[in-house]
Amino acid sequence: MKNALCYLYSIYGKSVLSGQQEANWNDNPTDISSYAGQGLKTPAVHGTDFAYHSSAGCTGVNISTTHAIAHWNAGGLVMYRYHSGMPVSGTTCMDDCYQGTNCSESTPSGSFFTNIITPGTAENTSWNSRLDYMTVQFKAMAAVNMPVILALFHETQSNGWFWWSKGTGAQLIAMWKYSFNYLTATKGNTNIIWLMPFSGAPTSAYWPGPSMVDISGGDTYGSDPPFTSLYSSCKGVMGSTMPIALHECGTAPNPSTMFPTAAPWVLFSVWAGYETSQWANLKTIYADSHTITRDEMPSLK
Amino acid sequence: MSKSATIVLGAAGVVALAAILFALREKRPSPVSVEAQDPVAAAGPSEPTAPTARPLPPLPAPLVSGPRLRKPAELDAGKRLDEASLMAKLHDLAASDPPLSLQLAKEALARFPDSPNAPEFEWNYVKALANMDRYKEAEEAARVMVKKYPGNDFAADVDRHLIHHPPNPSNMPSPP
What we know:
The complex is a heterodimer.
Chain A: H1 2-11, E1 16-17, E2 19-21, H2 34-37, E3 45-49, H3 63-73, E4 77-81, H4 112-115, H5 122-142, E5 148-150, H6 169-186, E6 192-197, E7 215-220, H7 228-238, E8 244-249, H8 255-258, E9 268-270, H9 279-287, E10 291-292
Parallel strand pairs in A: 1-10, 2-3, 3-4, 4-5, 5-6, 6-7, 7-8, 8-9
Chain B: H1 3-27, H2 34-37, H3 39-42, H4 73-79, H5 83-93, H6 98-111, H7 118-131, H8 135-148, H9 153-163
């Protein structure tokens, strides 16, 4: 983990890691493999999701983890997010869903945000079961000395789309701290690079602080790359030393407009499917000397 | 005081009290919704289900004296705010009170349909529906918005989360 984190810090401000999210909800996602068909090298960062666990259940190593390990073994980095279902009484990772009752987009009510971090409550038990499920995957990746960039609670913003963003900043920070402590101190995971994933307008009200964050950043589907305004907003919250990632985007930014100071993102990750409408843009970006592809990464093992 | 004088004074008091009560009754606002008060607001984004304006709280009993009559709080929120204040109120509410957000967004759209802020007001309208788990209505409203504002970031946002979004895992039931 240390090698990967040091590497991210070493390239920050000088280069950008290329990235692509896999549509891991498909049986055979082709987002990353399709780059070769366009004459492009493989992206450095493989984006994936803890939801969509196929038939492995909550205690088995799922197919997304297997794909992630393959990318790591080929020299790349992996970034996870988690479209977790809303952790209510009796639910586990097997109940994860995007939209519907108690899904990612659901809206908590009552004392949910207090309960989720209060041991012994049904919500806390349910959330712990998700963290335990994630731990199964982290351990499988740790077994091959693999670090994982974790963008937990992605698209954090006031009135965000997912349940974790529908409370206050203080409630989000409390969940972050709880999850950080549970996954590290309680479960002993040591291969997590913690990425605090903002969306919209980053604000310090939702910022857990550098003691529990390794890198941070924002996401946007705007059409004005390199998204200088978003980068500046992120920098205003996170400071000038922590690497800032464009952890999710529609249009990839061209490095020729990013460096040295406009918006020197440490990585970008194109959301699944959005690569197909911008191959010409990606060809320009991948030809730029600032862009790092998987084959250009040093060994981080 | 003589008995007849007492009767005359008493009758005069009753008449005066009746006059005060009548005058107050005339000034009292009637309990109507925001849409009913504002015909423009009534023409807001189509909403296939029941009207979203909350019934206003009952008016207090007529007072002979004491504090002047106040408008209901929700009317204050909806009617008196200028455009910037409406937007600020929606930001403040965030996801805490989706029915009120829906009402305010709807009113803002009716009052300021050509404002540069209209896409954001409409985003709040769609988002409030989603926050109430009314996904089908939210998706329908999102489709309208995407057509109305092609290339707009707020429209792209509802597109990504309500129309072209990752599916539920296959082991889950479809959204309601």
